[in-house]
Design brief:
It contains ten helices and ten strands. The chain has helices at 2-24, 29-32, 39-52, 60-76, 138-156, 192-199, 236-248, 268-274, 305-323, 329-354; strands at 79-88, 94-104, 110-117, 165-171, 178-179, 182-183, 211-219, 230-231, 261-262, 278-282. The protein is globular. A six-stranded mixed β-sheet has the order 1-2-4-3-7-10, sandwiched between helices. 42% of the residues lie in helices and 16% in strands. It folds into two domains: 2-24 and 334-354; 35-323, 3-Layer(aba) Sandwich (Aminopeptidase), CATH 3.40.630. It is α/β, with parallel strands linked by helices.
């Protein structure tokens, strides 16, 4: 009995040691998956959009940028679908608009939509000069598009490990509503394009076989001093999961424990009304530290690659953490702990035998 008790005590000690070692291993997606998001790629994608000029509906720059987005997203996705439509308000001219949809893992039934608007605002009503002229839209429009294209690249490398279909949706006609006495385009509302897309959504999926899991919107994610708000129309569970993912990666400043709460009219509203859990990853563009919203200074000089990295890596990590085929994250922790135990016990028993 004494010998058995001694062995039991040693095994007990080993289990405690293994538990301590296991708990010292941070339970984060960063430890379980390689994060491949490249902020330089994303930054270059913003630069390319600005090279086209102002992406305002009705302009050649707008149409050329749409062709480029479709070409880029087509490199990484299984299928690209174009949603063509026109918007005409009252007696105003009719404007050609286009949503661009890239689908990854089209054989999967569960759909996660990653979205961003790609048009840029036609006026600079918050500036002190040339208010009637378009803005560059590096952050407001350009940054979300850039992050989505880079996410398409990195998630395409991981597609066989994902249990969901991913839609990369580039939404037109978001940023032409009324602000401070000025319309972007006369009498337009905000988020015109997303409402049209949702009205026509049956054209893009099989409602008898496919279902929507969530919609994640990226809007103004590339400016300096990045700090996301808690958007009041967003799903609380989805918000908490993504914010925890960012915090685990060390981005607690961008994903604060007690974020500013704001209600934003944005492209996610139409998808919420359709019945999806949604989140708008967006900054406080009213009182926040990034002060170039709807001004001519929304340009490359005020884009921070670190903010692109924070956003991209967090969404990449979230997708890999919550949608990987097979074991959930906690199961990997059990496997790690069990492996430690299986390695340590034979070593200790061999050491005792040699004594």
């Amino acid at each position: 009995m004494g010998k058995l008790s001694l062995i039991s005590n040693e095994i007990y000690t080993i289990l405690i040691l293994a538990l301590v070692l296991g708990l010292d291993f941070p339970l984060t997606s960063a430890n379980l998956f390689t994060l491949d998001f490249n902020e330089t790629n994303a930054y270059n994608h913003i630069s390319t959009q600005l090279d086209f000029g102002f992406r305002v509906p009705g302009t050649a720059s707008h149409n050329n940028c749409a062709d480029w987005i479709g070409g880029q997203i087509g490199i990484y996705t299984d299928e690209v679908m174009i949603h063509d439509y026109s918007i005409q308000i009252g007696e105003q001219p009719s404007y050609f608009c286009q949503d661009i949809l890239g689908k990854l893992n089209t054989e999967k039934n569960k759909i996660v939509i990653l979205g961003a608007h790609w048009d840029s605002r036609n006026v600079a009503e918050k500036d002190t000069y040339n208010q009637s002229q378009p803005i560059p839209g590096a952050n407001d429009g350009g940054s979300g598009v850039a992050v989505l294209i880079e996410l398409a690249r990195v998630l395409s490398l991981y597609k066989d490990n994902l249990d969901c279909q991913i839609w990369f949706l580039f939404i037109d006609a978001e940023d032409q509503g009324y602000s401070r006495g000025m319309y972007g385009l006369e009498y337009w509302d905000w988020s015109e394009g997303s409402r049209v897309f949702v009205d026509d959504i049956d054209e893009f999926y099989d409602s008898s076989a496919e279902n929507f899991d969530s919609f994640i919107l990226l809007d103004m994610v590339g400016g300096s001093n990045l700090q996301f708000i808690r958007e009041a129309n967003s799903d609380s569970n989805l918000h908490n999961r993504i914010f925890r993912e960012g915090q685990k990666l060390g981005y607690s400043s961008a994903f604060p424990e007690n974020p500013t709460v704001m209600s934003i009219i944005d492209d996610h509203i139409a998808f919420k009304d359709f019945g999806m859990p949604v989140i708008d990853l967006i900054i406080d563009f009213v009182n926040g530290e990034w002060e170039y919203h709807h001004t001519h200074s929304d340009n490359l000089e005020n884009i921070d690659p670190e903010s692109l990295k924070i956003t991209g890596q967090t969404v990449e990590s979230y997708m890999k953490n919550f949608y990987t085929v097979g074991f959930p994250v906690w199961a990997y922790f059990v496997i790690i702990l069990g492996s430690i135990i299986l390695v340590i016990i034979p070593i200790v028993l061999l050491f005792r035998k040699r004594r």
